[in-house]
Amino acid sequence: MVLLLVDPQAAVMTAAAVKAAAAGLALLLAAACTAPAPPRSQASPAAGTACAQPQARPGPETATTIDVVEQAYFCILGNYYSGATLDARSLLTAAFAALTQELDRDGHDVPEATMPALTGDRKAGWAAFEAVYRKVADQVPGLRDQLAAVTLEALVAALGDNHAGWTHDVERPPDYHDGDGYGLGLEANVNGAQVHANPGTALAPLFVTTVQGGAAQAAGLRPGDVIESINGSAPFIDGKATPAIAALYPRYPQARPVRLRLLRQSTGRRWSVTFKPGLFQRDLAALQVVRSKLLDDDIAYVRMRGFAPDSADRVLKAISRLRTGRTLTGAVLDLRGNGGGSPKEAIRLVSAFVHGKATGHLCTVDGKCETLWTDDAVQLLDLPLIVLTDRGCASACEHFSSAVKDLRIGRLVGTRTAGVISGPAQPYLLADNTTLAFPTRHHLGPGREVIDRIGVAPDHHVPLTAKDAAAGRDPALAKALTLLHE
Length: 486
What we know:
This protein is α+β, with helices and mostly antiparallel strands. It has helices spanning 15-28, 66-79, 88-106, 122-139, 144-157, 192-197, 214-218, 284-287, 311-323, 343-350, 396-406, 466-471, 475-485, and strands at residues 165-167, 180-183, 186-188, 208-211, 226-230, 236-237, 240-241, 258-264, 269-275, 278-281, 290-295, 299-304, 330-334, 358-363, 369-373, 385-389, 411-414, 425-429, 435-439, 442-444, 460-461.
Protein backbone atom coordinates (compact mmCIF):
# COMPACT_ATOMS: atom_id res chain seq x y z
CA MET A 1 0.00 0.00 0.00
CA VAL A 2 1.37 3.43 -0.91
CA LEU A 3 0.39 6.46 1.13
CA LEU A 4 0.40 9.68 -0.84
CA LEU A 5 1.34 12.76 1.15
CA VAL A 6 -1.28 15.38 0.44
CA ASP A 7 -2.21 18.95 1.22
CA PRO A 8 -5.26 18.45 3.49
CA GLN A 9 -6.88 21.69 2.32
CA ALA A 10 -6.60 21.09 -1.40
CA ALA A 11 -5.43 17.57 -2.02
CA VAL A 12 -6.19 15.86 -5.28
CA MET A 13 -5.82 12.09 -5.12
CA THR A 14 -6.88 8.99 -6.90
CA ALA A 15 -9.85 6.98 -5.85
CA ALA A 16 -7.65 4.13 -4.90
CA ALA A 17 -5.72 6.50 -2.58
CA VAL A 18 -8.61 8.31 -0.89
CA LYS A 19 -8.78 5.79 1.97
CA ALA A 20 -5.04 5.78 2.67
CA ALA A 21 -4.69 9.54 2.35
CA ALA A 22 -7.56 10.27 4.71
CA ALA A 23 -6.15 7.83 7.23
CA GLY A 24 -2.77 9.55 7.03
CA LEU A 25 -4.43 12.90 7.62
CA ALA A 26 -6.13 11.60 10.75
CA LEU A 27 -2.83 10.37 12.17
CA LEU A 28 -1.16 13.71 11.60
CA LEU A 29 -3.75 15.81 13.40
CA ALA A 30 -3.27 16.80 17.06
CA ALA A 31 -4.94 14.78 19.85
CA ALA A 32 -8.39 15.60 21.21
CA CYS A 33 -11.33 13.85 22.91
CA THR A 34 -14.95 13.57 21.90
CA ALA A 35 -17.89 13.04 24.21
CA PRO A 36 -20.21 10.08 23.68
CA ALA A 37 -23.14 10.89 21.41
CA PRO A 38 -26.39 11.45 23.34
CA PRO A 39 -29.37 9.18 22.75
CA ARG A 40 -31.25 10.15 19.59
CA SER A 41 -34.18 11.46 21.59
CA GLN A 42 -31.87 13.91 23.42
CA ALA A 43 -29.84 15.05 20.41
CA SER A 44 -30.46 18.35 18.67
CA PRO A 45 -31.68 18.10 15.07
CA ALA A 46 -28.30 19.30 13.81
CA ALA A 47 -26.33 16.75 15.81
CA GLY A 48 -27.01 13.92 13.40
CA THR A 49 -26.62 15.91 10.18
CA ALA A 50 -23.83 18.50 10.62
CA CYS A 51 -20.33 17.67 9.48
CA ALA A 52 -17.10 19.62 9.60
CA GLN A 53 -13.51 19.21 8.54
CA PRO A 54 -11.43 17.62 11.32
CA GLN A 55 -9.56 20.06 13.53
CA ALA A 56 -7.98 17.55 15.88
CA ARG A 57 -7.03 13.91 15.94
CA PRO A 58 -10.19 11.80 16.15
CA GLY A 59 -10.71 9.44 19.05
CA PRO A 60 -10.97 5.67 18.56
CA GLU A 61 -13.54 4.54 16.01
CA THR A 62 -16.91 3.63 17.44
CA ALA A 63 -19.70 1.57 15.93
CA THR A 64 -21.17 2.93 12.70
CA THR A 65 -24.89 3.42 13.20
CA ILE A 66 -27.83 4.64 11.16
CA ASP A 67 -27.30 8.06 12.79
CA VAL A 68 -23.81 8.16 11.26
CA VAL A 69 -25.27 7.18 7.88
CA GLU A 70 -27.73 10.06 8.26
CA GLN A 71 -24.86 12.44 9.02
CA ALA A 72 -23.01 11.32 5.89
CA TYR A 73 -26.16 11.66 3.77
CA PHE A 74 -26.77 15.27 4.72
CA CYS A 75 -23.05 16.06 4.69
CA ILE A 76 -22.90 15.00 1.03
CA LEU A 77 -26.04 16.90 0.07
CA GLY A 78 -24.80 20.03 1.82
CA ASN A 79 -21.14 20.04 0.75
CA TYR A 80 -20.49 17.86 -2.32
CA TYR A 81 -19.78 20.00 -5.39
CA SER A 82 -23.03 18.96 -7.09
CA GLY A 83 -24.92 18.33 -3.84
CA ALA A 84 -27.35 21.16 -4.51
CA THR A 85 -28.62 19.46 -7.69
CA LEU A 86 -28.29 15.80 -6.65
CA ASP A 87 -31.39 13.65 -6.73
CA ALA A 88 -31.21 12.21 -3.21
CA ARG A 89 -33.28 9.23 -4.36
CA SER A 90 -30.24 7.87 -6.22
CA LEU A 91 -28.23 7.82 -2.97
CA LEU A 92 -30.99 6.21 -0.93
CA THR A 93 -31.79 3.62 -3.58
CA ALA A 94 -28.14 2.54 -3.80
CA ALA A 95 -27.90 2.40 -0.01
CA PHE A 96 -31.05 0.29 0.30
CA ALA A 97 -29.87 -2.07 -2.44
CA ALA A 98 -26.65 -2.65 -0.50
CA LEU A 99 -28.68 -3.28 2.65
CA THR A 100 -30.79 -5.98 1.00
CA GLN A 101 -27.76 -7.59 -0.68
CA GLU A 102 -26.03 -7.87 2.69
CA LEU A 103 -29.12 -9.50 4.17
CA ASP A 104 -29.13 -12.00 1.31
CA ARG A 105 -25.43 -12.79 1.71
CA ASP A 106 -25.95 -13.56 5.36
CA GLY A 107 -29.12 -15.59 4.73
CA HIS A 108 -31.30 -13.29 6.83
CA ASP A 109 -33.60 -11.48 4.41
CA VAL A 110 -36.69 -10.10 6.17
CA PRO A 111 -40.17 -9.03 4.94
CA GLU A 112 -39.67 -5.48 6.23
CA ALA A 113 -36.76 -4.90 3.79
CA THR A 114 -38.89 -3.19 1.15
CA MET A 115 -37.80 0.14 -0.30
CA PRO A 116 -40.17 2.93 0.76
CA ALA A 117 -41.74 5.27 -1.79
CA LEU A 118 -39.61 8.37 -2.35
CA THR A 119 -40.90 11.69 -3.69
CA GLY A 120 -37.59 13.53 -4.09
CA ASP A 121 -37.96 15.51 -0.88
CA ARG A 122 -34.59 15.03 0.85
CA LYS A 123 -35.72 15.17 4.47
CA ALA A 124 -38.91 13.19 3.94
CA GLY A 125 -36.98 10.65 1.90
CA TRP A 126 -34.47 10.17 4.68
CA ALA A 127 -37.21 9.82 7.30
CA ALA A 128 -38.91 7.10 5.25
CA PHE A 129 -35.61 5.32 4.59
CA GLU A 130 -34.59 5.44 8.25
CA ALA A 131 -37.92 4.12 9.48
CA VAL A 132 -37.66 1.01 7.29
CA TYR A 133 -33.96 0.58 8.04
CA ARG A 134 -34.57 0.52 11.79
CA LYS A 135 -37.33 -2.07 11.44
CA VAL A 136 -34.99 -4.26 9.40
CA ALA A 137 -32.01 -3.83 11.73
CA ASP A 138 -34.17 -4.72 14.73
CA GLN A 139 -34.91 -8.09 13.09
CA VAL A 140 -31.20 -8.96 12.75
CA PRO A 141 -29.39 -7.37 15.73
CA GLY A 142 -26.27 -9.41 15.08
CA LEU A 143 -25.89 -7.73 11.69
CA ARG A 144 -26.54 -4.18 12.89
CA ASP A 145 -22.94 -2.88 12.59
CA GLN A 146 -22.30 -4.54 9.24
CA LEU A 147 -25.56 -3.27 7.76
CA ALA A 148 -24.71 0.31 8.70
CA ALA A 149 -21.23 -0.01 7.19
CA VAL A 150 -22.35 -1.42 3.82
CA THR A 151 -25.18 1.13 3.65
CA LEU A 152 -22.79 4.04 4.16
CA GLU A 153 -20.27 2.62 1.68
CA ALA A 154 -23.00 2.32 -0.95
CA LEU A 155 -24.21 5.85 -0.24
CA VAL A 156 -20.75 7.23 -1.06
CA ALA A 157 -20.22 4.88 -4.01
CA ALA A 158 -23.49 6.11 -5.54
CA LEU A 159 -21.78 9.43 -6.25
CA GLY A 160 -19.66 7.66 -8.86
CA ASP A 161 -16.83 10.01 -7.95
CA ASN A 162 -13.21 8.85 -8.09
CA HIS A 163 -12.23 11.29 -5.33
CA ALA A 164 -15.00 10.35 -2.89
CA GLY A 165 -14.51 7.73 -0.19
CA TRP A 166 -15.18 6.69 3.37
CA THR A 167 -12.19 5.81 5.55
CA HIS A 168 -12.83 3.29 8.30
CA ASP A 169 -11.29 0.21 9.90
CA VAL A 170 -7.82 1.17 8.69
CA GLU A 171 -5.41 -1.62 9.57
CA ARG A 172 -1.78 -2.39 8.89
CA PRO A 173 -0.38 -5.90 8.71
CA PRO A 174 1.57 -7.18 11.71
CA ASP A 175 5.31 -6.53 11.37
CA TYR A 176 4.67 -3.70 8.89
CA HIS A 177 7.58 -1.29 8.40
CA ASP A 178 7.58 2.03 6.57
CA GLY A 179 8.05 1.38 2.87
CA ASP A 180 6.73 -2.17 2.92
CA GLY A 181 4.34 -3.28 0.22
CA TYR A 182 1.37 -5.59 0.58
CA GLY A 183 -0.02 -7.83 -2.12
CA LEU A 184 1.36 -10.10 -4.82
CA GLY A 185 4.50 -8.06 -5.43
CA LEU A 186 3.79 -7.09 -9.03
CA GLU A 187 2.42 -4.26 -11.15
CA ALA A 188 0.66 -4.81 -14.46
CA ASN A 189 -0.12 -2.53 -17.39
CA VAL A 190 -3.59 -2.14 -15.86
CA ASN A 191 -2.87 -0.67 -12.43
CA GLY A 192 -4.88 -0.70 -9.23
CA ALA A 193 -6.22 2.84 -9.50
CA GLN A 194 -7.38 2.17 -13.06
CA VAL A 195 -9.17 -1.01 -12.00
CA HIS A 196 -11.15 0.81 -9.32
CA ALA A 197 -11.67 4.24 -10.90
CA ASN A 198 -11.73 3.93 -14.69
CA PRO A 199 -11.64 0.28 -15.86
CA GLY A 200 -13.09 1.13 -19.26
CA THR A 201 -9.73 2.56 -20.28
CA ALA A 202 -7.87 -0.75 -19.87
CA LEU A 203 -6.47 -2.39 -23.00
CA ALA A 204 -5.62 -6.04 -23.64
CA PRO A 205 -3.40 -7.94 -23.20
CA LEU A 206 -2.75 -7.87 -19.48
CA PHE A 207 0.94 -8.24 -18.72
CA VAL A 208 3.45 -7.73 -15.92
CA THR A 209 5.34 -4.42 -16.10
CA THR A 210 7.22 -4.50 -12.79
CA VAL A 211 8.17 -7.21 -10.31
CA GLN A 212 8.41 -5.47 -6.95
CA GLY A 213 9.19 -8.43 -4.69
CA GLY A 214 7.21 -10.83 -2.55
CA ALA A 215 5.36 -13.76 -4.10
CA ALA A 216 5.86 -12.57 -7.69
CA GLN A 217 9.61 -12.38 -7.29
CA ALA A 218 9.77 -15.74 -5.51
CA ALA A 219 7.84 -17.35 -8.38
CA GLY A 220 10.27 -15.98 -10.96
CA LEU A 221 7.87 -13.67 -12.79
CA ARG A 222 9.40 -11.22 -15.26
CA PRO A 223 8.24 -8.02 -16.96
CA GLY A 224 6.39 -8.92 -20.14
CA ASP A 225 4.82 -12.11 -18.78
CA VAL A 226 1.25 -12.16 -20.10
CA ILE A 227 -1.52 -12.91 -17.57
CA GLU A 228 -4.03 -15.07 -19.43
CA SER A 229 -6.38 -15.81 -16.53
CA ILE A 230 -6.93 -14.83 -12.91
CA ASN A 231 -8.58 -17.37 -10.64
CA GLY A 232 -9.83 -19.10 -13.79
CA SER A 233 -11.40 -15.95 -15.26
CA ALA A 234 -10.23 -14.06 -18.33
CA PRO A 235 -8.97 -10.52 -17.61
CA PHE A 236 -10.58 -9.28 -20.84
CA ILE A 237 -13.74 -10.39 -22.64
CA ASP A 238 -14.46 -8.90 -26.06
CA GLY A 239 -11.74 -6.36 -25.39
CA LYS A 240 -13.27 -5.10 -22.16
CA ALA A 241 -11.65 -5.45 -18.75
CA THR A 242 -13.35 -7.78 -16.29
CA PRO A 243 -13.56 -7.53 -12.48
CA ALA A 244 -11.05 -10.39 -12.28
CA ILE A 245 -8.16 -7.92 -12.67
CA ALA A 246 -8.88 -6.43 -9.24
CA ALA A 247 -7.53 -9.63 -7.63
CA LEU A 248 -4.02 -8.57 -8.71
CA TYR A 249 -4.16 -5.75 -6.17
CA PRO A 250 -5.43 -7.09 -2.84
CA ARG A 251 -5.51 -4.73 0.13
CA TYR A 252 -4.87 -5.79 3.69
CA PRO A 253 -6.47 -7.74 5.32
CA GLN A 254 -7.43 -9.51 2.07
CA ALA A 255 -5.37 -12.71 2.02
CA ARG A 256 -7.20 -15.03 -0.35
CA PRO A 257 -4.79 -16.89 -2.69
CA VAL A 258 -4.72 -15.72 -6.31
CA ARG A 259 -4.11 -18.22 -9.12
CA LEU A 260 -2.62 -16.90 -12.37
CA ARG A 261 -2.23 -18.57 -15.76
CA LEU A 262 0.82 -17.05 -17.46
CA LEU A 263 2.46 -16.96 -20.89
CA ARG A 264 6.09 -16.02 -21.53
CA GLN A 265 6.02 -14.99 -25.17
CA SER A 266 9.78 -15.21 -25.71
CA THR A 267 9.79 -18.97 -25.02
CA GLY A 268 6.13 -19.95 -25.52
CA ARG A 269 6.03 -21.36 -21.98
CA ARG A 270 2.63 -21.50 -20.28
CA TRP A 271 2.27 -22.25 -16.60
CA SER A 272 0.07 -21.61 -13.57
CA VAL A 273 1.08 -20.36 -10.17
CA THR A 274 -0.81 -19.55 -6.98
CA PHE A 275 0.21 -16.49 -4.97
CA LYS A 276 -0.63 -15.71 -1.37
CA PRO A 277 -0.83 -11.95 -0.71
CA GLY A 278 1.55 -10.73 1.97
CA LEU A 279 4.07 -8.14 3.06
CA PHE A 280 7.18 -7.61 1.01
CA GLN A 281 10.11 -5.23 1.20
CA ARG A 282 10.21 -2.66 -1.58
CA ASP A 283 13.32 -1.45 -3.36
CA LEU A 284 14.22 1.75 -1.51
CA ALA A 285 15.19 3.47 -4.74
CA ALA A 286 11.72 2.80 -6.14
CA LEU A 287 10.19 4.56 -3.13
CA GLN A 288 11.95 7.84 -3.84
CA VAL A 289 9.44 10.45 -4.96
CA VAL A 290 12.01 12.13 -7.22
CA ARG A 291 14.93 10.47 -9.00
CA SER A 292 17.13 12.02 -11.67
CA LYS A 293 19.96 11.25 -14.07
CA LEU A 294 21.69 12.65 -17.16
CA LEU A 295 20.88 11.11 -20.55
CA ASP A 296 22.94 11.54 -23.73
CA ASP A 297 25.17 14.02 -21.85
CA ASP A 298 22.71 16.88 -22.33
CA ILE A 299 19.21 15.74 -21.32
CA ALA A 300 17.93 15.98 -17.75
CA TYR A 301 15.75 12.96 -16.93
CA VAL A 302 13.61 13.20 -13.79
CA ARG A 303 11.20 10.52 -12.59
CA MET A 304 8.47 11.84 -10.27
CA ARG A 305 6.34 9.28 -8.42
CA GLY A 306 3.86 11.67 -6.80
CA PHE A 307 3.07 15.30 -6.11
CA ALA A 308 4.05 15.14 -2.45
CA PRO A 309 4.91 18.28 -0.43
CA ASP A 310 8.09 19.93 -1.76
CA SER A 311 8.27 17.52 -4.70
CA ALA A 312 8.19 20.35 -7.27
CA ASP A 313 11.20 22.00 -5.62
CA ARG A 314 12.97 18.63 -5.56
CA VAL A 315 12.45 18.29 -9.31
CA LEU A 316 13.79 21.79 -9.93
CA LYS A 317 16.82 21.21 -7.70
CA ALA A 318 17.55 17.92 -9.47
CA ILE A 319 17.55 19.65 -12.86
CA SER A 320 19.72 22.45 -11.47
CA ARG A 321 22.31 19.92 -10.25
CA LEU A 322 22.36 18.16 -13.62
CA ARG A 323 22.81 21.56 -15.27
CA THR A 324 25.91 22.45 -13.26
CA GLY A 325 28.97 22.65 -15.50
CA ARG A 326 27.12 21.77 -18.72
CA THR A 327 24.55 23.06 -21.18
CA LEU A 328 21.31 21.09 -21.17
CA THR A 329 19.29 20.86 -24.36
CA GLY A 330 16.10 19.63 -22.76
CA ALA A 331 14.32 17.87 -19.91
CA VAL A 332 12.29 14.67 -19.75
CA LEU A 333 9.84 14.51 -16.85
CA ASP A 334 8.63 10.95 -16.36
CA LEU A 335 5.18 10.96 -14.75
CA ARG A 336 4.17 7.40 -15.60
CA GLY A 337 2.49 5.79 -12.62
CA ASN A 338 2.28 9.14 -10.81
CA GLY A 339 -0.92 8.88 -8.77
CA GLY A 340 -1.15 12.58 -7.91
CA GLY A 341 -1.12 14.45 -4.61
CA SER A 342 -1.10 18.18 -3.96
CA PRO A 343 -2.44 20.53 -6.67
CA LYS A 344 -0.21 23.25 -5.21
CA GLU A 345 2.83 21.21 -6.25
CA ALA A 346 1.39 20.76 -9.75
CA ILE A 347 0.92 24.52 -10.07
CA ARG A 348 4.44 25.21 -8.81
CA LEU A 349 5.97 22.80 -11.31
CA VAL A 350 4.01 24.30 -14.22
CA SER A 351 5.27 27.70 -13.09
CA ALA A 352 8.86 26.69 -13.81
CA PHE A 353 7.98 26.62 -17.52
CA VAL A 354 5.48 29.48 -17.98
CA HIS A 355 4.22 32.56 -16.12
CA GLY A 356 0.96 34.48 -16.12
CA LYS A 357 -1.24 31.58 -17.20
CA ALA A 358 -4.20 29.64 -15.81
CA THR A 359 -3.27 26.05 -14.94
CA GLY A 360 -6.85 24.94 -14.28
CA HIS A 361 -10.16 25.88 -12.69
CA LEU A 362 -12.15 24.65 -9.67
CA CYS A 363 -15.87 25.03 -10.30
CA THR A 364 -19.14 24.61 -8.48
CA VAL A 365 -22.12 22.92 -10.10
CA ASP A 366 -23.60 26.31 -11.05
CA GLY A 367 -20.48 27.29 -13.01
CA LYS A 368 -18.79 29.58 -10.50
CA CYS A 369 -15.07 28.93 -10.89
CA GLU A 370 -11.84 29.80 -9.14
CA THR A 371 -8.96 30.10 -11.60
CA LEU A 372 -5.67 28.49 -10.55
CA TRP A 373 -2.85 30.75 -11.75
CA THR A 374 0.84 30.05 -12.12
CA ASP A 375 3.16 31.12 -9.30
CA ASP A 376 5.29 33.68 -11.10
CA ALA A 377 7.82 33.79 -8.26
CA VAL A 378 9.15 30.44 -9.50
CA GLN A 379 12.19 30.91 -11.72
CA LEU A 380 11.73 29.78 -15.31
CA LEU A 381 13.90 26.88 -16.45
CA ASP A 382 13.91 27.85 -20.14
CA LEU A 383 14.34 24.25 -21.32
CA PRO A 384 12.43 22.26 -23.94
CA LEU A 385 10.20 19.81 -22.07
CA ILE A 386 8.91 16.32 -22.80
CA VAL A 387 6.50 14.71 -20.31
CA LEU A 388 6.01 10.92 -20.27
CA THR A 389 2.44 9.92 -19.35
CA ASP A 390 0.36 6.76 -19.07
CA ARG A 391 -2.89 5.55 -17.56
CA GLY A 392 -1.22 5.64 -14.14
CA CYS A 393 -0.87 9.44 -14.31
CA ALA A 394 -3.86 10.62 -12.27
CA SER A 395 -5.26 13.60 -10.39
CA ALA A 396 -2.58 16.26 -9.74
CA CYS A 397 -0.50 14.53 -12.42
CA GLU A 398 -3.31 15.26 -14.89
CA HIS A 399 -3.54 18.83 -13.63
CA PHE A 400 0.11 19.26 -14.60
CA SER A 401 -0.13 17.31 -17.88
CA SER A 402 -3.19 19.20 -19.11
CA ALA A 403 -1.46 22.50 -18.40
CA VAL A 404 1.66 21.38 -20.30
CA LYS A 405 -0.45 20.48 -23.32
CA ASP A 406 -2.94 23.35 -23.27
CA LEU A 407 -0.32 26.03 -22.63
CA ARG A 408 2.07 24.50 -25.18
CA ILE A 409 5.01 24.46 -22.79
CA GLY A 410 6.03 20.92 -23.72
CA ARG A 411 4.92 17.73 -25.45
CA LEU A 412 3.31 14.64 -23.95
CA VAL A 413 4.63 11.24 -25.00
CA GLY A 414 3.20 7.84 -24.06
CA THR A 415 -0.48 7.12 -23.57
CA ARG A 416 -3.55 8.98 -22.34
CA THR A 417 -3.70 9.81 -18.64
CA ALA A 418 -6.07 8.15 -16.16
CA GLY A 419 -9.07 10.48 -16.30
CA VAL A 420 -9.22 10.42 -12.50
CA ILE A 421 -9.42 14.09 -11.53
CA SER A 422 -12.88 14.84 -10.20
CA GLY A 423 -11.66 17.55 -7.83
CA PRO A 424 -9.72 18.16 -4.60
CA ALA A 425 -11.03 15.82 -1.89
CA GLN A 426 -11.99 17.53 1.37
CA PRO A 427 -12.22 15.43 4.57
CA TYR A 428 -15.16 15.52 6.98
CA LEU A 429 -15.21 13.88 10.40
CA LEU A 430 -18.23 11.72 11.23
CA ALA A 431 -19.65 10.97 14.67
CA ASP A 432 -18.06 7.50 14.78
CA ASN A 433 -14.61 9.08 14.27
CA THR A 434 -14.35 7.87 10.69
CA THR A 435 -13.61 10.18 7.77
CA LEU A 436 -15.75 11.00 4.76
CA ALA A 437 -13.98 12.72 1.85
CA PHE A 438 -15.26 14.16 -1.43
CA PRO A 439 -14.72 17.17 -3.72
CA THR A 440 -16.50 20.42 -2.99
CA ARG A 441 -15.51 21.75 -6.43
CA HIS A 442 -14.92 20.11 -9.81
CA HIS A 443 -11.60 20.38 -11.66
CA LEU A 444 -11.47 21.67 -15.22
CA GLY A 445 -8.41 22.11 -17.44
CA PRO A 446 -6.87 25.47 -18.42
CA GLY A 447 -9.36 25.83 -21.29
CA ARG A 448 -12.21 24.79 -18.96
CA GLU A 449 -12.29 21.36 -20.59
CA VAL A 450 -13.42 18.31 -18.62
CA ILE A 451 -10.52 15.93 -17.92
CA ASP A 452 -12.24 13.67 -15.40
CA ARG A 453 -13.12 10.25 -16.91
CA ILE A 454 -11.52 11.36 -20.19
CA GLY A 455 -7.86 11.96 -19.42
CA VAL A 456 -5.28 13.98 -21.33
CA ALA A 457 -4.30 12.64 -24.74
CA PRO A 458 -0.57 12.50 -25.55
CA ASP A 459 0.90 14.48 -28.43
CA HIS A 460 2.74 11.31 -29.45
CA HIS A 461 1.00 7.99 -28.74
CA VAL A 462 3.72 5.49 -27.80
CA PRO A 463 2.31 2.54 -25.82
CA LEU A 464 4.38 -0.06 -23.98
CA THR A 465 3.88 -3.61 -25.27
CA ALA A 466 4.50 -6.93 -23.53
CA LYS A 467 7.45 -7.54 -25.86
CA ASP A 468 8.91 -4.14 -24.96
CA ALA A 469 8.60 -4.91 -21.24
CA ALA A 470 10.18 -8.35 -21.66
CA ALA A 471 13.12 -6.89 -23.62
CA GLY A 472 13.62 -3.98 -21.20
CA ARG A 473 12.81 -1.45 -23.94
CA ASP A 474 11.26 1.94 -23.18
CA PRO A 475 9.79 3.19 -26.47
CA ALA A 476 8.27 6.33 -24.93
CA LEU A 477 11.60 7.46 -23.51
CA ALA A 478 13.31 6.68 -26.81
CA LYS A 479 10.74 8.85 -28.62
CA ALA A 480 11.26 11.66 -26.11
CA LEU A 481 15.00 11.69 -26.73
CA THR A 482 14.44 11.69 -30.49
CA LEU A 483 12.13 14.69 -30.23
CA LEU A 484 14.57 16.65 -28.10
CA HIS A 485 17.42 15.98 -30.55
CA GLU A 486 15.47 17.07 -33.64
